[in-house]
Write a structure and sequence with these properties.
Length: 84
């Protein structure tokens, strides 16, 4: 079974910019360094993150057809460089 989800770059950037405030990159609980990526029966994509105090969900506007998928993905976004 193919568990690939393809999203437009701008959709992914919008999701990651908001979730970046929630995901703790130095958490003592490794599971909190992951986001949940899911596609439902209608093709709606959601990306979720938590730090146990706050919880955020981004739902893509466009549906992406394919099988139902529910997985954890390691958070690998690097912080933005400081503004000069």
């Amino acid at each position: 079974m193919n568990k690939e989800i393809v999203l437009p770059v701008m959709t992914l950037k919008n999701a990651l910019s908001g979730l970046n405030r929630i995901v703790d990159k130095k958490s003592s609980l490794p599971i909190l360094q992951h986001v949940r990526l899911a596609r439902d029966l209608e093709g709606k994509i959601s990306i979720q993150a938590t730090d146990l105090d706050a919880f955020a969900t981004y739902t893509a506007k466009e549906s992406v057809p394919g099988p139902v998928v529910d997985m954890l993905v390691p958070w690998i976004c690097s912080p933005r460089p400081p503004n000069p």
